[in-house]
Amino acid sequence: MTQRTPSVAQQYAMSTDITGTPQSTHAAGGRFAPLARWRVNPERMAWMILLISFALFVILLIAVPLTVNYAVNHFTVAETAQLESTQGTLLLYPSVNAEPIAVTTQQTDAGEGSRILAADDSTQGTVGLMQDEDSGELLGSVQLYPGTDLVLTRLRRPFFDRSKQPYQVQIRLDKGQARIFTNSSDRRPLSVELITPQGVMELTSGSYNIAVDEEGADMTVRSGEAVFTDLTGARQIAVAGDGLWSTGDTSVVKVAITERNLIRNGDFTQSMADSWRQYNIAPNVENGTVSIIERDGRRVAHFNRQGEEGVHTEVGIFQELNEDVNVFDELVIQLDVRLMYQSLAGAGYLNSEFPLRIEIEYVDIYGKELRWGHGFYYRDPDDVTRSVPDSSKIPAYNWYTYQSPNLMDVLAETRPARINSLRIYASGHNYQSMVSEIYLLAQ
Fold it and tell me: N or C, which terminus of the chain has less Cβ within 10 Å?
């Protein structure tokens, strides 16, 4: 019988049976493919899967808490600012392409990206920046003046209460003049960044005056601290009493403030015992009160009396100055006023009872003791034809900045030689008012 010679495939299979090497599978089309490598060494593959799983576990163990912590600390929610016109008409552009909204005296919400324009020469307004989550009080505000062009670029608060991040406010002042007040709550601080064509200012809690025009940016720090970074990258720190000037092309410089404020503690941030004294006139009836409180990112003196009608009362604060002003050519009084209530129409029967009035006692160049004063009210007299001299009618519930003319010119015939004292008071039957940022500027 003839013996058949084994085929190549049979010989390979026989050799693998003898050597113990695993056979390969038969591929489609007559081709042979090697077995999967994991079948060669399954233990190695198992260890690889175990190590990869452990690595993924470690990565997730670290990444998930870090991601959650980042989200808790950095996720924010947009807020709106409170826009009010105290005099004239403000123009509010809610977005770049939106039509302007005329804002007169009502409160209007303004969101991120809103542009606010005070175009008229007599326009004033207030932007309330951020509210405290606990008390609901404003922590910051911006006082706008004629010719101001302001943009609210960022208004944010943390989404989670556990976040340690501050309230974030970023505003852009393209031109004009503004006063910025910033404060912080017990829960978290307020971070305010001001952008101008000349650079960026980081503001702490305090009070700041800023003016921007084609020539440059001019800032005065009334209280607090500001860090200015100009377009060249130069940084300058300014504290209370400092002035900064920058054109943007050159480094920011610190400038001397030539005006002198004769009032001590005009922002009520220091002890009242060292500056102001209180008095009260209320014959046999409930008297009024003066208290220092926080409002709209600033400390204010709050005058209040709610009691029996039909009787005259008066409550006020005064400060002894005893300042020689012979050498000065300019003398200007400036203060922020807010009226909330007055029961008497106008300034009373004798035009002498205002919900708020400021008065200066001085000695003129002839040695005679005289007074100059200016009152504020919002209710018209019962007789609409009757005028209220030496006063300003202002909108109720809104902050209003009053700046007197140069008193050296107004009182030219009895030019002041020495300022004895300054008095701020409320009088009438029932009233409620506030005053803040009082300056008697001599230059």
Answer: N
The per-residue pLDDT for range 380-405, each reduced to its tens digit, is 998 888 889 999 999 899 889 999 99
294 and 431 fall within a common domain: yes
Supply 323's token pair: 């300042």
Q: What is the DSSP string of 146-206?
A: TTEEEEEEEEEEESSTT--PPEEEEEEEEEEEEEEEE---SS--EEEEEEETTEEEEE-SE
Q: 361 lies in which domain range?
A: 272-442
Q: How many domains does the chain have?
A: 2
Q: Identify the residue with better confidence: 242 or 362.
A: 362
Per DSSP bridges, beta strands 369-377 and 391-393 are parallel
User: Residue 383: inside a domain, yes or no?
Assistant: yes
Would residue 98 count as lying in a domain? yes
Tally the C-alpha atoms within 13 A of residue 215's C-alpha that lie toward its C-beta. 3
The verdict on pTM exceeding 0.90 is no
Q: How far apart are CA 355 and CA 396, in angstroms?
A: 11
